[in-house]
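dumping the sequnces here before i forget
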Amino acid sequence: MKASIKALYRRVLGAVLLVCAMPVLAAGTINLGSKNFTEQHVLASLTAQYLTAKGYTVNQTTDLATIIQRNALENKQLDMVWDYTGTALIIYNHIDRRMSDEEAYQTVKNIDAKKGLVWLDPAPLNNTYALAMKRSVAESEGIKTVSDLVAAMKRVQDDPEAAPWQLGFDMEFAGRPDGLKPMQAMYQLELARPQIRQMDPGLVYNAIRDGFVQAGLVYTTDGRVKGFDLLVLEDDLHYFPSYAATPVIRQEVLEQNPGLADDMNKLSALLDNDTIATLNAQVDIDHRNVDEVAAAFLRDHQLIQ
Amino acid sequence: METINDTFLYVIHNVPFILGLTVQHLRLVGIAVALAVVLGVPLGIVIVRFKWLAGVVLSLTTLVLTIPAIALFGLMIPLFSMIGQGIGAVPAITAAFLYSLLPIVRNTHTALTQLDAGVREAGRGIGLTFWQRLKWVELPLAVPLIFGGIRTAVVLNIGVMAIAAIVGAGGLGTLILHGISQSDIRKLIAGAVIVSVLAVVMDQVLLKLQRVLTPKGIR
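..and the predicted 3d for all of it:
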């Protein structure tokens, strides 16, 4: 009994020491973060494999919510992330003025420079939000734009026989002050509480496909838009800002690794909407492994052996 | 049926990855519960000695357990961000540690307070002090119940730890999150089933260990 308690305590002490052993930051080590959706997994995997081949050591932390990831970057637990201009503008800096893509990029770049965060060249990809619905339903109802959808929903609402349409949103968008509410105001979209279905962003696509909601919020570069045959409705009043994917790196890390900016800019330049949507679809539709998809892309472009 | 087949194939083709997540998962739970034992068992003993503390300590540990897991993990982030550990293993282990306290403290307390009064009297009768009785008589008799608390904590936290992936701690929750975000039912099922199996297996393993540690006299 006595011996076993002693042994137990010794083991516990070992465990405590393990926790206390903080990760030591070596030169050339990059702590890479990614958010909780497929495109981010793909971007992180591309970056990790590409930089590893260049001789860096990359530690990945995946599946972080936007705000958690941003905090970790500001607290120096992460060194590099892929972020979006629209997200930085609206969520981190609460700027909801409409501006051009270039102006948006320069604005967030300047603001973050003061925090020691560097926005490298943006990839030519705009992963903005959109409302989408099943193509078959959209075509039979003659819906092409968000305004058409609003009109169609009003028609259904006025029909006492028909059940009101429901829309699916991810929880982040539904809850954000710059998300659903102002969009409703701009499009004069009236929704009773039961018509708003909140869920994980990845579930919205399945919900639209399976008819649980008539329309929902999607990311334009998501592979499931094509894969599930969804129709992206035109944002005819231009509510959604642009979301250019861009590597964001801490200034210190960039200084320690002089070649890093050029390396990353080379990768970013290859990633346009079609390319990333194809990669995303290989993961979400074909259910291929993220690392395999990323490796195949990097090999095709001779970025890794 | 096809889904089950696909899930099985997915697991077979990704054994190293899934094994890695499982080890990570168990390590997080193991460290959290071990820390809870180190603090919880002495705490359970102290509140037997100082009765006025018992109410406060047991209420507090109960209160912690009523906080939804996802909220507790969320609360850890700003807290640990202050020391630059907002994501990763530290917030996850802390949350699971807090969840482990109630079963361990309460079971230790219950085991010691509900001992047969005659046993305690006998110890007192042969002139043992409080600490001597504790060491030679009461703790050995309390082993089964204390271990019951540890088992509850482990099983509880194997489930809770599935949420740790949202704070970047990894573990089997990663599989479940990917299943949802990538519309991939195979990963979702694999993650959920492995978490459940793990809980059952660990419970049995600890039960065996408990039998070994229980004094022969009360086995």
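The interface with chain B takes residues 1, 4, 8-9, 11-12, 15-16, 18-19, 33, 36-38, 41, 61-65, 68-69, 71-72, 75-78, 200-203, 205-206, 224, 283-284, 287, 289 of chain A (CB under 8 Å).
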